[in-house]
Amino acid sequence: MADLFDTPESPRLPLAEAMRPRAISEVIGQKHLLGPGKPLALAFQSGKLHSMILWGPPGVGKTTLARLMASAFDAEFTALSAVFSGVKDIREAIAQAEASRARGRHTILFVDEVHRFNKAQQDAFLPYVEQGLVTLVGATTENPSFEVNSALLSRAAVYVLQPLTADELAELFERARAFACPELAFEADARDRLTGFADGDARRLLNLLEQVHTAATTAGINPVTPAFIDEALSRNLRRFDKGGEAFYDQISALHKSVRGSDPDAALYWLCRMLDGGAEPLYLGRRLVRMAVEDIGLADPRALEICLNACTTYERLGSPEGELALAQAAIFLACAAKSNAVYKAYNAARKFVANDVSRPVPIHLRNAPTKLMKNLGYGKEYRYAHDEPDGYAAGENYLPEGLGKPGWYAPVARGLEAKIAEKLQRLRELDRQAEAHADRSRREAGLSGKPDGSR
DSSP string spanning 76-120? Predict the structure, then answer.
């Protein structure tokens, strides 16, 4: 712990640097890449390096993984930042790699924010990657499909790193507290509040813990409470915390403004959250949810517009891409509303979860083999395209005994009004077909003929 504090012999190390993992076993998170049998775990075990792009949000371990590779493979580690580096720096890094190879050591060239290099700068790496002079490890917070040229992508594997989960942040918090300030206690809600502020970012969590430790020591506070965290971090945090009440209050207000068809209010809450530091793509995902939950088939364009807005933001970033999110929010607010799909889905899911596993009716089963055909699979199935108006009136597509649950009930707004008219017309055809079948069965019974129904 001594290296965390200033001394004449050793300057203070930030907690995030002091706690940087020294081995793969110390890494918290990224189990989909580092767990047993997963891609990066296999790379470490095999001893075979390969070039890669690590794509993920800040504070999830991109730099740490690159450093651990250099240590595990006994390679030189050379780091460049695309924010501060140019072609001259690339040339110097390559010269260092050549000198290292002459000494019998391979080089891992780590390029942070690789997406910020232009095409010519990215192309400068290609011959050295192909020659095997360096193993390139690029880190990016942006979609490499858009920001990294195809030639470089074809020579590197892309691994997607995920934000740390709440449980993983809690594990990191306990490890850091025991390491840096074991004497300081935290109420459970205070810990959850601090990890909520971190929003999946390990570096942010460690920096916040340092700030709280300093503030609590100065104020003589122990244990730390949620109220103290709010007070201690109020000047350094956004106007809402991503894991707390204010954040969800605002996203709730945005959702309800859209549902209430108020475009000005929807735009206000969208801008409030963007101004407060909300992740734009998170808002985009919520808009997609609103398009499905509150508009649905009343205006199917809503889903397409929201998905396009997310794609536009991924391509343009801030601030240009935020305009596409604003357009989507206004469209949702102005669109015809229906939660019929949402209600139907929930009702069907609930029914299936509590129901038995009903068999597929024989006439709906596929019959790819002779045995299945002999067993009657697919027999008497009516091909809708061969029926009048392309509809097999009276046909049943649900398991026997289920009846007509009526989960989907379209509203009389937008496109769903026309859908409702069509379904009503089809149901009338079903009733006519069923009445005809009943008459046929009665007549067959009176004449002594066998019942021809299924």
Answer: EEEEEETTT--HHHHHHHHHHHHHHHHTT--EEEEEETGGGS-HH
- CA–centroid distance for 350 within its chain: 25
- Cβ burial of 191 (10 Å; 0-12, 13-18, 19+) is buried
8 Å CB contact between 60 and 201: yes
Residue 84 Cα distances to 23, 112, 116, 117, 398, angstroms: 29, 10, 10, 10, 63
Phi-psi region of 401 (alpha: psi -120 to 50; beta: other; left: phi over 0): left
3-state SS class at 308:
helix
Contacts of 120 (CB under 8 A, 6+ apart): 87
Q: From edge to edge, which strands make up the β-sheet containing 76-81?
A: 76-81, 107-112, 134-140, 52-55, 157-160
CA distance 195 to 201: 9
Report the candidate in 117, 63, 109, 107 with the shortest Cα–Cα distance to residue 86.
117
Length of the chain equals 454
Q: Please provide the average confidence, as pLDDT, over all residues in the chain.
A: 86
d(CA 373, CA 366): 9
The CB density around residue 277, as the number of other CB atoms within 10 Å, is: 14
Q: Cβ(3)–Cβ(10) under 8 Å?
A: yes
Q: How many CA atoms lie within 13 A of 441 on its CB side?
A: 10
Q: Looking at residue 295, what DSSP letter applies?
A: I
In 3-state terms, what secondary structure has residue 18? Answer: helix
Q: How far apart are CA 112 and CA 54, in angstroms?
A: 10
pTM score above 0.85:
no
pLDDT tens digits, residue range 393-444? 888 888 888 888 889 989 899 988 999 899 889 888 888 888 888 888 787 7
Q: H helices of 320-363, where?
A: 320-334, 340-354
Structure tokens at 92: 């110097």
DSSP classification of residue 272? H
Measuring CA to CA, how many Å separate 159 from each of 30, 140, 200, 222, 414?
10, 10, 18, 42, 43
User: 122-131, pLDDT tens digit by residue?
Assistant: 888 888 998 8
Burial (CB < 10 A; 0-12, 13-18, 19+), residue 247, is buried
Closest CA to 78 of 68, 70, 18: 70
Give the span between the Cα atoms of 332 and 294, in whole angstroms.
9
